[in-house]
Specification:
Shape: globular
Distance between the termini: 38 Å
Pfam families: QslA
Strand content: 5-15%
Strand order of the largest sheet: 1-2
Radius of gyration: 17 Å
Helix content: 55-70%
Largest sheet: 2 strands, antiparallel
Organism: Pseudomonas chlororaphis
Protein name: LasR-specific antiactivator QslA domain-containing protein
Number of strands: 2
Number of domains: 2
Number of helices: 6
Order of helices and strands: HHHEEHHH
Length: 178
């Protein structure tokens, strides 16, 4: 289990210094930081479910760190998406949480859906650690946009679930018995 104060004080992804490292070493450092955040989010959900907002923040930071690590390893610069909004693929709604639009077009729908399915399988009671479920399943997709689309589907389904649980916890705490 993680100490909450440690998780709260983790530096944001843009504050992690990789300037003096080789691209490979920078990617390793960023992946380790992302894994720490995924494990922290899992620990929060298991032991401190009232701190869902911190878990969501850690998942968001993990996604950014995995992306930065990929960019170091591939040498591919961040891309600009020039598609019309109607062409974006959305993660389907889940348990009352609306769908979430991604920056990928419909051609990446199968990868996004695979990420959603894998995350849902973990949420439905998998005994695997969260980071392992992500790491092992992402290997099925080619590096680049296909893998990133899978990761987006995976992380966005987790985000939807966390938002839903946060809203449920908030509504329960504001209900008063007469």
């Amino acid at each position: 289990m993680f100490e909450l104060s440690l998780l709260i004080s983790l530096p944001k992804p843009n504050r992690i210094d990789t300037a003096s490292l080789t691209p490979e070493d920078a990617a390793i450092k960023l992946r380790q930081a992302a894994t720490l955040r995924l494990n922290g989010a899992q620990s929060i959900l298991l032991h401190f479910p009232q701190d869902v907002e911190l878990a969501v923040e850690l998942l968001d930071d993990a996604a950014v760190l995995f992306d930065k690590a990929f960019r170091y390893l591939s040498g591919i610069p961040a891309q600009r998406v020039h598609q019309q909004i109607s062409e974006y693929y959305s993660v389907p709604s889940a348990e009352g949480c609306p769908g979430i639009r991604t920056p990928w077009g419909n051609e990446f729908g199968p990868m996004i859906e695979d990420g959603v399915r894998c995350a849902q399988a973990w949420l439905d009671g998998s005994s695997l650690p969260l980071w392992w479920a992500l790491a092992q399943n992402r290997k099925r997709h080619r590096p680049g946009d296909s893998r990133e689309a899978f990761e987006a589907g995976f992380l966005l389904r987790l985000q939807q679930t966390l938002i839903m649980r946060r809203e449920a916890a908030t509504s329960q705490s504001t209900n008063f018995d007469a």
